[in-house]
Amino acid sequence: MTQTYKSDFLNVLQERGFIHQCSDFEGLDAKLCEGPQSAFIGFDATAKSLHVGNLINIMMLHWFQKTGNKPITLMGGATSKIGDPSFKDESRKLLDDTTIEENIEHIRATCFKQFLTYGDKPTDAMMVNNNDWLADLNYLDFLREYGRFFTINRMISFDSVKTRLERESPLTLLEFNYMVMQGYDFLEINRRYGTILQMGGSDQWGNMINGVDLTHKAAQKQLYVLTTPLLTTPDGRKMGKTENGAVWLNKEMLSPYDYYQFWRNVDDAMVAQMLAKFTLLPMEEVSRLSALEGSEINEAKKILAFEATKLCHGEQAAKDAEATAQKVFEQGGVGEDLPTISLSTTEAKDKKLIDLFVETGLCASKGEFRRLVKQNGAKLNDNPVIDSEAILGMPHNDTHKLSAGKKKHALVKVG
Predict the structure, then answer these.
(1) Inter-residue contact 46 to 102 (CB < 8 Å)
(2) What is the pLDDT of residue 172?
(3) Distance of CA 61 to the CA centre of its chain
(4) Do residues 374 and 408 lie in contact, with contact meaning Cβ atoms separated by under 8 Å?
(5) Taken in order 231, 237, 238, 240, is the CA torsion positive or negative?
(6) Is 308 helix (H, G, I), strand (E, B) or coil?
(7) Most C-beta atoms within 10 A of its C-beta, which of 34, 123, 224, 291?
(8) 411 has which bridge partners?
């Protein structure tokens, strides 16, 4: 039986499949019914863009604001210097202050404003940076004031730490402090903004519950934690968090067309939850589309791709990506929105296909291209490439299509 809540926010999240675990459902539900509240989610600035793996958290903040509350995006200007050990086998690469600040500015400009309304009104979103309070902490004072509230017994009981220890992967003191700092973030944000809720992925439960415990012990206040299921593929991989080929939200790092294609090509079994979580379609429409079977599921995927791309990149970008996909896949033509390289007629004469496939991003390496040729997956103008050392060799003005398999395409414009 589906749980029914008194608050609009929890009901929306329940209906759309966002809820995994909560520290106190009844208490949080009652607090949300008292009037507008604020909640935050933390994002580390380890790249110039967030990715699809972060999108489920952004959508939680979107619905939090949509139901009359104030969302806070917390940028980990300080915690990005350390690295979260959660479910990783090795330490994260350390970043310098300049790189972190640059990443935050890129993320601020490209990854939140499509989904949240920022401003000065009571329920407008705000962005804060934990470097503002963590950078100047005195280590001895901090240990004396708050270290007594954290026990090693409790910290090593969390799955994120146990996983590293069981695999005998080194877990540094630097990383171990991450959960202490994240717990302190919640205490500090509550003090500054009255925030009562932290949300995040289920893998962050241990780090987040530290903040609830710390605030209860240090300030005698009741706070809440709400987690969402991790977004994974049918084979169990985290979506958007692969080391290579991340699905970025920044159009400068991943084109709207490629973003559209990501959603267009999701596994059939994931269409229903993707429609519910990553579009703004009414649930009646989500249910109708989710019930489609056989070849009709492709229509649901097209709507998913269009709606998700519109939300992230705008309606015109979604229309352009849809038109390109239709031209390439349904009409066998060449879509103008594909990744494109321009060559002069002189350059085209001696340009190797192996270099073009790598430069357009169709192949990650020359070795990958050679393997693709052996599998008959590399094509030039829909004709198989049979020689991995072949040149383009087309001096006349024209546009040529490169294909890696059935789903990845790029254009070469000569002239």
Answers:
(1) no
(2) 73
(3) 13
(4) no
(5) negative
(6) helix
(7) 224
(8) 340, 401
Measured distance CA(87)–CA(230) in Å, rounded: 12
Q: How far is CA 91 from CA 28, 70, 94, in A?
A: 35, 34, 9
Facing residues of 409 across strands?
Answer: 403
Nearest to 309, CA basis, from 256, 245, 240, 265: 256
Q: What's the pLDDT band for 50 if we cut at 50, 70, 90?
A: very high
User: DSSP assignment of 121-178, as one string?
Assistant: STT-BEEEETHHHHTT--HHHHHHHHGGG--HHHHTTSHHHHHHHHTT----HHHHHH
Let me know: does 112 contact 127? Beta carbons within 8 Å. yes
Report phi then psi at 183, rounded to 5.
Answer: -65, -40
Report residue 23 as tokens.
């520290």
Buried b or exposed e, range 148-170, using 16+ CB within 10 angstroms? ebbeeeebeebebbebbeeeeee
CA 146 from centre of chain = 32
Q: Give tens-digit pLDDT for 231-287.
A: 887 777 777 644 446 889 999 888 898 899 889 888 888 999 999 999 999 999 999
Strand, coil or helix: what is 6? coil
| pTM of this prediction exceeds 0.90 | no
Tokens (6 digits) for 318: 């979604």
User: What is the total residue count of the chain?
Assistant: 415
Q: Which domains does the chain have, with CATH numbers?
A: 8-228 (3.40.50.620), 256-330 (1.10.240.10), 340-414 (3.10.290.10)
In 3-state terms, what secondary structure has residue 203?
helix
Q: Is 21 or 163 the better-scoring residue by pLDDT?
A: 21
Give the three-class secondary structure for 388. coil
What does the buried/exposed string (b/e) look like for 193-231 if buried means 16 or more CB atoms within 10 Å of the residue's CB?
A: eebbbbbbbebbbbbbbbbbbbbeebeeeebbbbbbebb
Tell which residue, 91, 90, 109, has the closest CA to residue 101: 109
